[in-house]
Structure formats: structure tokens, C-alpha cells
Design a protein that fits this description.
InterPro entries: DIOX_N (IPR026992), IPNS-like_FE2OG_OXY (IPR044861), IPNS-like_sf (IPR027443), Iron_ascorbate_oxido_reductase (IPR050231). This is UPF0676 protein. It comes from Vanrija pseudolonga. It holds the Pfam family 2OG-FeII_Oxy. This protein is an alpha+beta fold and 364 residues long. It has one domain: Jelly Rolls (Sandwich), CATH 2.60.120.330. The strands form three sheets. An eight-stranded mixed β-sheet has the order 1-2-10-7-12-5-4-3. Strands 6-11-8-9 form a four-stranded antiparallel β-sheet, with no helix packed on it. It is built from ten helices and 14 strands. The radius of gyration is 20 Å and the shape is globular. It starts with 26 loop residues before the first strand and ends in a 5-residue tail after the last strand. Helix 1 crosses helix 5. Helices cover 29% and strands 18% of the residues.
């Protein structure tokens, strides 16, 4: 069995000093979840955040900064591996597989600049995957971290959302059980820096690393990212705002599956990644994320909620079109294949019907 490789301590880069147009996002403080009054308050804050902003912060979620930094250190060490070793773990990206390594250079960004985005996804234990020795050696720690995220962050948020929808408390957690096979995954994501000439070309175009899009699961959890880049499109105004890094927090957004399950009452949040401010262009951007998805086989049909019935959100895109709602597995494979297929530009397949009743879309 591989032995855990000793890791260097991870050092977070300084935040930007530039005056950016930051988004004003609400905070879900999970320390309030211990009392009935606190839970009621959090449920109200959560549904308001999901309906108006789509993004929110989570604090006091019971995972230490040392545990978080250890995951950043593993991710940092992974990206120092030789490219030929990382390429041994590339899945069938063209056909919707995504667990493992996705190399940079699969998209051409604005002004003809090649992307420098690398991704490494680690699924739940029930999903078979081979790992490089570095990851294998740290797998017990990674598994424990994944489970803590599931139980200490995802489940409390889903329980609060069920309350806001006037559903039994376990309605959504039953669809997202840790010990059931599902396509949840932990991600180490690296945006390598460009040189000055490349940044100039990017800024002459749209200035984006990743164009506006939605995630396909239930909730995405992003650990504090000091290198500014994430931008959020406000549900109400349609304007783009920068996501500010908040100490000891997670930045969370709603995704497609949750939108389907709520008939569009909770909207999947549109976001993009912009080139960083000038004072952060001399560093790479390393991200640590957790993508939560319903259990294998869950049908993405609108839940029977009193709130959804009162508000008129009783059918999602598939149901309104008279099409059968897909399972999360069917939707995941279809959208991943659409997103990941190698192409000249991000918008090469925009508007393509990826499942009957649903078209792939990017956003300005």
C-alpha cells in the first residue's frame, strides 16, 4: 500500500488590494443550527439567498483550517507531478466521464489564447477509480474530509432547505446519502498563470478563463479562494459581481439538479471565472471544491412541496415540455459530455439539445 508522502505546509497567497465590485452575499452561520430558533432563522436566510443571489457563504461548519490546508497541500503536490504521470489518469472525457485528471489546453479562450486549466476529480468511495501513488497514500485523509463535508455541510444545508420548502426534514438528505453511490466529487483545480503578452490578449477579448455557465449537481462548495476570479451573475439585476474571499468560509452555489427538483423555484446560479486583478497575476490559482449530486438513480422530477404548489413551481423544464425527467446519471453524462468535449471555443456547442427538453447554454 502506498505510503503518505510528507507535505509542505500550504501558504495562501495575499488577497488583491484592487477595489473590485464585490457581491454582497448572505452568510449561513451553522453554529446557529443547534437551536430551533436558529434553524428557523437559517432556513429563511437560505431560501432568500438561493432565490435572490444563488450564492452564499457558510461559516462555522466544523472542519478545521488545518484540515482544509492539508487538502490544498495535496492538490498543490499533485500538480507538481510530471505531465506523463497525470495523463495516465485521464478518463473518457468525450463521453461524459470526469473522475480523474483533465489536462489543460482543451479550449481556446478569447484572442486565440489556449486555456491553462487543469482539473483532478476524486469521487466517493463507491465509484471505482485508480489513483496515482501520491493520492493513494493520502486517500484515508481525503475520504474522511469528503465525508465530513457531506455530513457537516451538505446535510445541514439540505435539511434547512427542506424546512424552507415545508417538506419533511429528511426529504433532500435521503436523496444525498453518503453511503449510497453518487457522483459527488472533491476537486483540486489549477489555473496556471499567463505571461504579460497572453494577459494582454485575454483582456483584448472577453477577459475570461471560463465563460458564464451553471453547475449540474445540487450544491457546489468552494473553499476560500484568495485569488480573485469568480464572478456571479445576480439573479435579480443580471449584473456581474466579484466573489470576495471570506476567512474560514465556504462559498456555495445552487446547481441544475436542485433547480429541477424545485421546479425552478431555486435557480441554478450563473457564474464565470475572470482573469485575476493585476496584483495577482504572478501566481497560480489553486481551487479546492466539492460538488454534491443526488444519489444514483434519483429522478429529477419536481418535489411535491406545499411551498412550490403555492408559488406555482410545479414542473421543471422537462415536465413542462412533456418529456420524462431524466435520472441524475443520465443528466450528468449528457451534460458532462457536452461541456468537456474538446473544441476550439467554449461556445462551439451552445444551444445543442443535450437531453430531450434541455439545451446546453452559456451566458454573457
Amino acid at each position: 500500500m502506498p505510503v503518505a508522502v510528507p507535505l509542505s505546509s500550504y501558504e495562501h497567497v495575499p488577497e488583491t488590494k484592487e477595489a473590485l465590485d464585490w457581491a454582497d452575499l448572505p452568510t449561513i452561520d451553522l453554529s446557529l443550527n443547534a437551536t430551533e430558533k436558529g434553524r428557523a432563522q437559517l432556513a429563511d436566510t437560505l431560501i432568500e439567498a438561493l432565490r435572490t443571489k444563488g450564492f452564499f457563504y457558510v461559516t462555522n461548519f466544523g472542519i478545521s483550517q488545518a484540515e482544509v490546508d492539508s487538502q490544498f497541500a495535496i492538490g498543490e503536490q499533485f500538480y507538481t507531478l510530471p505531465l506523463e504521470e497525470k495523463l495516465r489518469y485521464v478518463p473518457d472525457l468525450e463521453n461524459g466521464e470526469y473522475n480523474g485528471y483533465r489536462p489543460a489546453g482543451r479550449r481556446v479562450l478569447s484572442s486565440g489564447v489556449q486555456d491553462k486549466i487543469e482539473v483532478y476529480n476524486i469521487p466517493k468511495p463507491e465509484v471505482p477509480q485508480s489513483f496515482p501513488p501520491l493520492i493513494e497514500g493520502h486517500l484515508p485523509e481525503i475520504r474522511a474530509f469528503q465525508e465530513k463535508l457531506h455530513e457537516r455541510v451538505l446535510h445541514p444545508l439540505l435539511t434547512l432547505l427542506a424546512s424552507a420548502l415545508e417538506l419533511p426534514a429528511d426529504t433532500l438528505t435521503n436523496l444525498h446519502q453518503w453511503d449510497k453511490r453518487a457522483e459527488d466529487h472533491l476537486r483540486y483545480m489549477k489555473y496556471s498563470r499567463y505571461d504579460a503578452a497572453e494577459y494582454e490578449k485575454l483582456e483584448a477579448g472577453d477577459g475570461l478563463y471560463v465563460t458564464g455557465h451553471t453547475d449540474l449537481g445540487s450544491l457546489t462548495l468552494l473553499f476560500r479562494q484568495p485569488v480573485a476570479g469568480l464572478q456571479i451573475r445576480d439573479h435579480e439585476t443580471g449584473s456581474w459581481k466579484w466573489a470576495k474571499p471570506l476567512d474560514a468560509s465556504l462559498t456555495v452555489n445552487a446547481c441544475d439538479a436542485l433547480s429541477f427538483l424545485t421546479g425552478g423555484y431555486v435557480r441554478s446560479t450563473i457564474h464565470r471565472v475572470h482573469v485575476p486583478p493585476k496584483d495577482q497575476r504572478d501566481v497560480d490559482r489553486l481551487g479546492l471544491l466539492y460538488f454534491a449530486r443526488p444519489n444514483q438513480g434519483v429522478v429529477l422530477k419536481t418535489l411535491d412541496s406545499p411551498v412550490l404548489a403555492r408559488e406555482g413551481f410545479t414542473a421543471n423544464e422537462f415536465e413542462r415540455a412533456g418529456k420524462p425527467a431524466p435520472t441524475i446519471d443520465e443528466f450528468t453524462v449528457a451534460k458532462q459530455a457536452w461541456q468537456q468535449s474538446k473544441s476550439t471555443v467554449f461556445r462551439a456547442k451552445e444551444g445543442q439539445e443535450i437531453l430531450s427538453g434541455f439545451k446546453g447554454q452559456y451566458y454573457d
